Amino acid sequence: MFEPDSYARKFTDMMSEGFIFIDTKGKIQIYNNKAKEIFGITYIYGISHSAGKIEEGDIIIIGDNCLGKDDGNMTPEALSCIGIRDSGIQNGDALIAIGTYKSGKGEKPVYRHITPDYDTKALELGYTYLDTEIYGIIDFKNKFINLEVKKEKYIMDYINSIGHIVVIDGNTKKLKFYQTHGYTARGEGLYDLLMGKRYRAKGDSEFFDVIGKDIFEIHKGGSTIEEFYEAATGKDISYVNEFKEINGRPTICTLSPVNKDGGRVGAVLKVEDISEIKKAIRERDEALLNLEQMERRFREEESAKKLMPEIIGESREIIDVKRLAIKASKTNSTVLLLGESGTGKSLLARAIHDSSKNKSRPFIHVNCGSIPEALLESELFGYEGGAFTGARAAGKAGMFELAQGGTIFLDEIGEISLSLQVKLLQVLQDKTFFKIGGNRNIEVNVRIIVATNKNLEEEMLKGRFREDLYYRINVFPIWIPPLRERKGDIYPLVQNMLPLICSRLGCETKRISGEALSVLTGYEWPGNIRELENILERAVNLAEGNTILSTHLTIDRIMDYARPKMADIRPLKEVMDEAEKRAIAEAILISGGDKKAAMNALKIGKTSFYEKINKYGI
């Protein structure tokens, strides 16, 4: 109907919208440059490759953000061609997979899949497969899939969904094919390629001409294309500026039948790409969401300062602790406070209780490390009269009974014996216990907060702390950072402590000099806040005037004592062995016990890997 150099084609190529004209047989007669740009029908690529098809032994890398959509109707079952037979993979899942095409021997496939939701940020997989370094990522926030082979990136961005694939020759390990935009029009959907369909070449010389092709060959169906065809073949269908989705791209379309000499000769579809508009709207929505989150965080920080004024400090670290503590105070879950000695765990436990709905009820503090093991059980659970020699005739209520309706704080829980841990576990599970010598099951309604300066996971591995008790108390953990990690809080701590210390000692309030404050901020504080308070109290006693100077601080001697000495230097081989052992153990842990994955991540050989496991007793 139109000559190759016709004025109609030249005119339509000047348009800022996509313009497609089909005849009454559905054959494309005009497909302007803008339409080619919108739907990715281009012929200039960064990396060239020849035409061909996937063959047995080829390495296949797949990145699909929504299985079964805009990927040629890919199915989980079709993954069997690269050795993946996993009933857990469903349509709609996001998947990154590496495998060998139709080969029953060789390397097993490697893959990760998830069912993404709104909060999912990314899915990643890195692996050295058949001596080929491969990395893949689906970035759900920025909407792109990147498949890397030997550091060469093959990136595809998307609007809603996409099926990306890279094919490496199994023999030469060279690139055979990579997916680009417009794959639907070229008939190179992921599923089609895996089923053996040939793909086109890429390169400056490759030209994909759509003129004369069936519209359904270039655009794989969909209601818009069906309406376009029906309008061309005689139906009275038309609309102006309606939202339509074609090949997964959001567009604004105008459909018009074309008549000549009283008869239908085809139809025209004018297409305006609004994916950039949608992208701008999405970026705006994300910016508004980030602003809302920042405002909420700011309100939480202000709330933390007001609700827990006894927790001194304005650093990001301590604000995060306060925010968690406020959340903990609103629930009845068991709270686990972690941190070095002197960081203020007892103070935080009290603050959580005072901010809770049961603040008018008892707060019982039990220092498990300061009570002899033989007495701790009776202190916690009480005893009946005559239960043991020396017991009171009337018996005694335990700390759990005294805390009824309130909070019991078990400090230094890592010091409790294994036998007592069993009884404590029962209280945590059932909120019931028996007194020593008693036969009546006592029910208690208490909030339990525990604290320790020990690494309970290490204690558990050494058999000194029960695993079931650890998981029972580790419901709401809060880590309190040491003072050396939040030195910005030293000044407000000093300003708060000094008046209290002076009042307690019965002397006039003293201030601290800038030089002395500089010395305090330069110290590493192994004893944390408790050590700071002790040093300030000594300084108040030593200072004869109203100003504490650096000479009044007994910190120099401590600093000399804490400074590393020659005797502290360890042999280099010992340090390197320790680092190597830790790296291997962490790799096995992160890979979920998959030693092969850990070995590949560490990039060491199998023999060397297992030798080191035996050497370090991992």
Automatic annotation (TrEMBL):
Q: Name one Pfam family in it.
A: Sigma54_activat
**Keyword list, A-Z:** ATP-binding, Coiled coil, DNA-binding, Nucleotide-binding, Transcription, Transcription regulation
Question: Is this entry keyworded GTP-binding?
Answer: no
Q: What InterPro entries is this protein classified in?
A: AAA+_ATPase, AAA_lid_NorR, Homeodomain-like_sf, P-loop_NTPase, PAS, Sigma_54_int, Sigma_54_int_dom_ATP-bd_1, Sigma_54_int_dom_ATP-bd_2
Q: Which residues form the Sigma-54 factor interaction domain?
A: 311-541
Coiled-coil segments on the chain, per record: 277-304
Quote the CDD domains the UniProt record gives.
Answer: AAA
**What is the recorded name of this protein?**
Sigma 54-interacting transcriptional regulator
